[in-house]
Each structure stands twice: as C-alpha cells, then as structure tokens.
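Worked Example 4.2. Read the sequence first, then its structure tokens.
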Amino acid sequence: MKKGTLFLIPATLGEEGINVISQEVKDVVQHVDLFIVENEKSARRYLRSIGYKKEFSENSLVLMDKNFPEKTDKYVFEYLLNGNDVGLISEAGMPCIADPGNYWVREAHRLNIKVKPITGPSSIILAIVASGFNGQQFRFNGYLPIKSSDRINALKKMEEVSISKNETQIFIETPYRNNSMLDDILKTCSSKILLCIAAELTQPNEFIKTLSIAEWKKNKPDLHHKPTVFLIYSK
C-alpha cells in the first residue's frame, strides 16, 4: 500500500500576513483531513483564513505534546501508513524551527514516510537576509537563558565567537521579555558590535534595523510583546 505524506505547512508570523502564504500551501491543505497542531483554536482560525473548506471532526486536529508525543503518535502514523496525508502546522512560520515538531518528522523518516516541506515565511531567515551580516557563517542559538546572569554569560560567549569566527549570532526571546533581553545586550556587548533588531516581520508594523551597540543606546526601541529576532555581528 502506498503511504501518505507528512506535509510541513508554514503559518503566518502574526495575526496578519496571509499575503505571504503561497497558493501551494492553500492547495495542499484542501487535500488533508488530519493536522498535527500546537493549539486547536489558532490552527482552525489559520486554516479557515487560507480557505480550508472541510468540516473539522473531533479527530481532525491532533495536539502536539512537547514532552510526550508518543501519546498520540500511534494514531497519526497508522493514518499515514494507510495512505493518508497529514499536515504539521506550528503556531508561526515554518514548523520545527524554534518550535516543536521534529519528533514527528524524525519518526516519519524512520517509517519511510515521505516528508514534504512547503515553502513559507521563516523569521530567522528573513532576519539574517535583512541584517547585512554574514549569511554564510551563522549560528542560531534559539532561546537564551531566562536568568539575567546566565543570559549575560551566553551573550559574552556569542560575542567572542562572532569576533573569532566571523560568525553571525542569532537568537530569540519570548516577546514579553524582549526589553529585558535588549537591556542585557546593550550593557554586555562592546560598543562597536553590530546589533540587528528584526521585529514583527511580515506584519504591518515590521521593524528591521542594524546599528552599533553605541548607536542603539542612544535610541532604544520598545519591543514589549513584539515577536523579535536579535542578531549580533562583529565588524
């Protein structure tokens, strides 16, 4: 029996931005009846916004369990092995980048199930493209430690690596802690280090700017509750 395909379906990066979702995404979802999602309510809203016309049954949306995905994997993978397609959707952007979902992809490969990523917005890629920094050598560090002292140590190490290896350092923070993150960056990194702040990408209030640490100290933006990617780079 022919197996189904696990489609990795991109979502918007915010409440708006449907215009960046391709026709391919809109076409693919019309042929899928089962989706692996982080949040049922937002997944339904997103699918409807891109024209999904089918009715949702109680089994249409399977919640990811970040700690114990095996609780639901048997049903999903039996569904795929029986020739049915499944869509994996994260809360924002591309699945599996700074989001859960890699477990499902890894298991699909193990079971020889086709995995098909669909092109869509990625805040990390958009940020590095727009930063003016080294796009051949870069490192995504994900979320830094919450504790300020640990975060400062992480920032110092990233600055050292950027200087020694000519490597762009990329990291993110939970939006409500962005201002604390920015404060730590400005008081930790040397004045000549370049910092790119890429906030609310693809949204109406999109903000992308690269300045030195010294220049940012003169005009610090308010990033509270604004999804933001931070990048640092040594000149």
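Now turn to a second chain, presented in exactly the same format:
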Amino acid sequence: MLQIAICDDEKSMGEYLKQLIENRLADDKEYRVTVFSSGAELLKNGKDFDIFFLDIHLKDMSGIDMARSLRQESEAVIVFVTALKEYVFDAFDVQAFQYLLKPIDEEKFYQVLEGALEECRPKEKPEPLVVRVKGIYRNIPKESIFYVENEARKVVLHLKDELISYYAKMGELEGILGGEFFRCHRGYLVNLNEVKGYDTGSIQLKNGEVILMAKQKYSAFVSAYMEFLRRKK
C-alpha cells in the first residue's frame, strides 16, 4: 500500500493537500494519506511512508531539520510545500524531490504528485551488458562499469576489481549503455553515477581515477550531467 504523509501545522492546509491527493488517487484503493500537525508527531510515526509533503515553517521544528532526520532512515520522496522561498537551496541538501510555493498552483501540484508517484513505482532492473571474452559470454551489470576505454579495435571495461578487454566499437557501445553513460572523449565513455568532479579537461571518478575530457565535449557533458542529477532526485 502506498503511504503518503502530510505535515503542516495549519490544519486547513493539511486537509486541502489531502483532498488534492485523494482526488488524483480516487480510483486507487491501495493508498493511505495521513496528516500530521507537528514535526515531532510525524517523526514518531514516519518511518514507513513513501512520500512526504512537508511545510518548512512549523511551530516545533523546521521542515528542513525534519527532513534531515527522515533521511537518516528513509529514502522516501520528499516534497516541500511552503510560503518561504529562501530555503530552496537547503532543500537540495536533503535530496528533496520538489519545492512548491504557497498559495498552491493545483496544476503544478498534480504534476509534482505524478512525478512523486512515478518515483515510487518499481524500477525495472537494467539488462546486463553481454560480452564475449575468449569464446565465453559474460553478463556484466552496467552499474558495475566505472568507465570504458577505447584501445585500438578493442574496448576495455574498467570495473571495480577487474579489467575486461574485448572486440567492440565505442560508438555501438555508447548506444547500448544508454543515458547513464556519456562519451566525454573519443577514447572514453564514463558512467555518470561514478563522477566525483570535473573540469574542462578531465573527469575525477569516485574510485580516485581521472580520465580525459575533450574540450569540445565539456558543455554537452555539463548539460547531460545536470539532467542526470535531476532525474536521480
């Protein structure tokens, strides 16, 4: 059952948001919306919720502090609903999904709700990369690849504990690996999940390695990486 929590110390606002959600989910019996009027009350009961709609200015604590507490145990979707614009950057620190301003624009609210519901739906596990090495076929989970290096007529998959070299074309591999990989240089495909930092000439990976960035690829990389981060929220 989908569990949705609303926390707002203004009772009428909490009930209003609940009504909006119930209007959208009217044909779905597998959900429950619970309204809390204080941060302490929510934190006492909030471990099992899938989506949180949180006000920021509460009488007993800030919604940002409440979200930090939730993040210690929960990866649920958090949406801030507030009249305060100045906390938008703090919201990113707690991996908030969205930041809605009061008074509520109902069309925007429903768009955000749809996105939050989509985040809660089970994700299909990506198909592995199938490679042929010395006559043996192997299934390589795409998420295990840090980056791919071009080496003459072969490519080299750089994994956590292994290098796998086999005959393939980088252009074809770029299409197979999909949107979580980026061709940052004619010799490299990088897994965006493994990026720690970057500049105009290089990308630093979480495992400490550094790979080349072609200068003409820099702007496209930044755009692709920002879009990737937005999708991951």
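Notes for the reader: The CA atoms of residues 104 and 149 lie 49 Å apart. Helices lie at 11-24, 39-45, 63-71, 88-93, 106-120, 170-177, 218-232.
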